[in-house]
Amino acid sequence: MKIELAKSYGFCYGVKRAIKIAEEHPNSATFGPLIHNKDEINRLKDEFNVGLVDELEDAMNYDTLVIRTHGITKDKLKTLKQNGKKIINATCPYVTTPQQIVEKMSKEGYTIVIFGDKNHPEIKGVASYSVDSERTYIVLSPEEVVGLALGSKVAIVAQTTRKPEEYKKIVAALAVRVAELRVFNTICNATFENQDATAELAKKSDVMIIIGGKNSSNTKQLQHISKSYCKDSYHIENEDELEKSWFEGKEKCGISAGASTPDWIIQKVINKIEELRK
Amino acid sequence: MKIELAKSYGFCYGVKRAIKIAEEHPNSATFGPLIHNKDEINRLKDEFNVGLVDELEDAMNYDTLVIRTHGITKDKLKTLKQNGKKIINATCPYVTTPQQIVEKMSKEGYTIVIFGDKNHPEIKGVASYSVDSERTYIVLSPEEVVGLALGSKVAIVAQTTRKPEEYKKIVAALAVRVAELRVFNTICNATFENQDATAELAKKSDVMIIIGGKNSSNTKQLQHISKSYCKDSYHIENEDELEKSWFEGKEKCGISAGASTPDWIIQKVINKIEELRK
To answer: Has the ipTM of the complex gone over 0.85?
Structure first.
């Protein structure tokens, strides 16, 4: 049986970069989990003594703090700096961009609209860069745009993981509401690259193994896509869940992984599959 | 029988303004017809000796030239000025705006997209203000946007008479194609105001008279809207077409007029209707 990895899978560019930055700063702590994967967080703790703090209070126990891919709010960053902390910024460049746009556009008098989830740390961070919080709106649907006091000039950015089709609907709803609308395409296509590559691989595979947290929405999405092309698709968290029977009589096994799945977990799964096939 | 005029009808703000400007400059000529209505053009000639030229060559016979609501191309304007002509600018302010936007945005390196008809004088004028004609595109549908070499920054304006719903579709098509899209809402709602007022009046009328050129597309649109609410709707060019039978047994007669219909023609129609009802 041939085993093939999807052309794009697992960590995106920003997460890979953040983990590398964390590894380069032992004895630091990340402000918020660097990734939604406990195994990887434990590995960083065990191998590099990189801790994890969720609150400013706990951050005070460390000299060096790593800002995760999502970024943090401007106020929290300021507090950390004022307390003499060394800041290692691992904010994903694709998140830094909307932060900078929101700051610049709000300074130029544009009302800010952010397409995203107001409870998501990335969006809390991006919104915090507006110099006028009263003229900063966070929306998830075109319906939410109705009735907003927008003024004549609006700038809009999107959460990096949002769907382009949904963004287009919100942009269309705003386009003829105001005299000028500045649309910044801040959507990152890493998620879609993993999805497209999974679909492509599933089409030519007998059996598909999708690796990622059972609660990971992007992994569940990959499994959903995979299953639509290859009925024998299995969503697992780690190699312990693999069953020998899945591979019996199969010629080609495709493998993909969610955005929070580290390479070393993927490698363990591959090793186990090869063992089961012996 | 009660006769009622629609709340909004006939000339838009820009045309009224242009005619007033022309009347204030006797012995001049308008560059291109001020309005698509021969009777009104003849009146300006008879009462104010305001002529009409279509070509630069003919313009040379006049000292003073009135630029009509549509505007003209930057090059033609320059030629007229270089030849010592006195320029009276009656370009509609709603058309001046996209001209200025296109000039400014193209100077700032934005690729220009214009939603409109490339053969329409307004659009020829607006497009002429781009400093980079190779990076200036005129489109009428979202499909035409596909495959354009857009670069990363795009600014878009619309012909003043376009439908907002159509503009939204083109904006949506561009929104996730480029890093930044600046959408300027340059659509004028005068056309829609006449349409809405005609619909409102038709709903409560027994008979509707829609006045305007038989080839005028906006008048035809008014007639179409009127007929959908009041089956006895008639599209006429002038009072000579009125028939006594249309008003027999009617209690309420509504009147509307296309954007090229002067008030004095409307008044003649009203006078004739009152005469027929005697």
So the answer is: no
